[in-house]
Amino acid sequence: MPASPRRATLATVAASAGVSVATVSKVLNGRSDVAPATRSLVESLLRQHDYVAPSPRRGESAGTDTVEVQFDSYINAYSTELIQGLVNTGVELGVGVVVSLKREAARPGSWARELAAAGRRALIAVTSELTSGQLTALARARVPLVVIDPLNLPRARVTSVGSTNFAGGLAATQHLLGLGHRRIAYIGGPPSAACNQARLHGYRAALEAEGVSVPPCYTHFGHFRYQDGLEYGAAVLDLPEPPTAIFVGCDETALGVMEAARARGLRIPEDLSIVGFDDTQIARMVSPPLTTVRQPLREMGSVALRTALRLAAGEPIDSHHVELATELIVRGSTAEVTCSRQV
């Protein structure tokens, strides 16, 4: 993160308002013995200066240190694997893990101040799209940040944790090519997401190495959700020349593709092979069990928490971006292509 600006103090705000430090303190504590006009002025300057009340020093409070983990919208199978890894490591280290959802309407300054005022030692953001304003607000509030699977990296030195997405996309597609498939579609996540781009490039690299071209209608991008699998699975399966295999950017979307195939009377894997990505619990529970690329999600959560705590303690870190290895897990949703489906 960038060098942190000097933290505003009560004296700074008091000098700007032309009042005493005691008056500013009264406003912060909600005291009623302050004139409305003065209160409004002080509150405005507190926001302007991005004032953050100092957090209690370690040992001054009987509470447990906490780190906030913030997700973009909703908790899914991918999220629960990360949370399990974060919580397990939090228990091991004696650190509390607080899970929240991103508030789109929150102003960067007030959002960061609330995190600091709540005593959060750090923030771990999962698949979040971050703005420079949010990064600056976190730096001013002295809240270290670690991002898991970032959608974007507006600054090069934002600390992040991910997996070898390119290698995973390459392995998934090579597996399908090895089974004889040549008509292979890709259904992924947001086009701008770094993890989606890496998986897509791995998919394309494997096909190009075999001299296999990709029709434009064979690639679709959504939001890593079940509904995307239903919609885009239907789109590619209804083509005049549908794919015999589909590489899908996450397990949840893959389940949607499986349902779209079933709705069309297609059998998996006899008529259509499907490979997912993540290796969440649902990949093992679905029928047939899903061939997928394993992301070490629990380990990613553990690494993110340990890294966040090192940043909070002012300790050096080995790298601003860590990638953990992916692994292809072959199950029952893929099979050799039949001669009748190659035609």
Automatic annotation (TrEMBL):
Q: Where is the signal peptide?
A: none
Q: Which InterPro entries match?
A: HTH_LacI, LacI/GalR-like_sensor, Lambda_DNA-bd_dom_sf, Peripla_BP_I
Ranges annotated as spanning the membrane: none
Q: Which residues form the HTH lacI-type domain?
A: 8-63
- Which keywords belong to this entry? DNA-binding, Transcription, Transcription regulation
What PANTHER family does the annotation carry?
LACI-RELATED TRANSCRIPTIONAL REPRESSOR (PTHR30146), LACTOSE OPERON REPRESSOR (PTHR30146:SF153)
What name appears for this protein in its UniProt entry?
Answer: Catabolite control protein A
Species for this entry: Nonomuraea coxensis DSM 45129
Q: Which gene encodes it?
A: ccpA3
